[in-house]
Amino acid sequence: METPANDNTATPAQQALDVLAENAEDTGALDTLAGSDVLVPVPDDVSDEDATDPSAVALPVLEQPGGVPVVPVFTSELEMSELLPFISRYRLVPLGALASQWPADDLSLTIDASSPHGLTLTSEGVRTLLGTRA
């Protein structure tokens, strides 16, 4: 179900994603998104010590059809549970800070992948659209 941009239950990040679905160049929405915290799933095979290390964030990498690697992040626990119901731990990370340290390789970022307002950015898009706004 699509959340209208003026819906009071939508987070600012979800509202920004709705705006970007209509206009990918909206600088206000990009700024809001870059300033938002996102949930980064912590895989079960990561130790508790590594999962809570403030100096490092282990990026969960999934493979999209065609073999393209993608890191899923989410704007809420509900969005995360819809796509990855088996994930029980996550880190709350500022999206802009994550983007400013994004690897240079061909790793995409997908935000709320299972929702109508989901957004996927290439590695270059993450660094240029979000990383410069941090």
From TrEMBL:
Pfam families given in the database record: SseB
InterPro entries recorded: SseB_N
Domain SseB protein N-terminal: 15-127
Record-given protein name: SseB family protein
Source lineage: Bacteria, Bacillati, Actinomycetota, Actinomycetes, Kitasatosporales
